[in-house]
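Agenda item 2: magnesium ion complex prediction
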Amino acid sequence: MVVIGDFSIGKSTLLRRFTSHDVFIPQLFSPPDYVQRLSEINEKIIKMIIFDTIGREFNLNSLSNLLRRANGIVLAYDISNRESFGHLEYWKTLCDQNSLDHTAYVLVGLKKDLSEKREVRKEEGESLAKSFQIPFFEASSYDNENVEIVFVTLAQNILSNPLFQKHTEPIISPHKKCL
Ligand SMILES: Nc1nc2c(ncn2[C@@H]2O[C@H](COP(=O)(O)OP(=O)(O)OP(=O)(O)O)[C@@H](O)[C@H]2O)c(=O)[nH]1
Ligand SMILES: [Mg+2]
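Presented output:
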């Protein structure tokens, strides 16, 4: 999976929150820029590998390489930053052009706790997600609200896609003997 969107909207913080459960770690990320977490989805233990990206001065080649291998993409914006919402069409097009046909998406409005500074109404997020035909959530890493559901929903949608299953080998082939 890949998390993508404008700079400083809270992407790295979201990943930190998702992988460090109870503790909120405010520091910024430094490379290697991915996290891993095991989660139980549809009664199976799934290893999620989630890549962070940077919202500006990114290398388009390495971003394209990342997107080409992604089974799921979290498109993100900051509810207190209208510009980051306005750039979502750009990010979605970039992802569509560089990702697999069966890549699953979810749209998330971050920093839900900043209600006094809100610049993007929830209905606007819902409506954009509807036009993209993808699930939508508002989340707060500070309050640990809706962080889990963003990734679980994305993982469920990846796993339920028959095209994904076709491209996936079982970790241990039932025909091979375990030595
Ligand atoms: N109020 C609030 N602030 C947040 C939240 N998540 C992140 N922040 C703050 O927003 C700022 C940017 O967060 P980052 O996670 O570094 O943002 P980013 O999207 O990874 O930024 P780039 O890596 O530069 O693209 C930091 O000061 C965070 O502490 C949140 O849920 N609520
Ligand atoms: Mg970051």
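Discussion summary: Helices lie at 11-19, 60-68, 82-86, 88-98, 122-132, 147-159, 162-166.
Owner for follow-up: CH.
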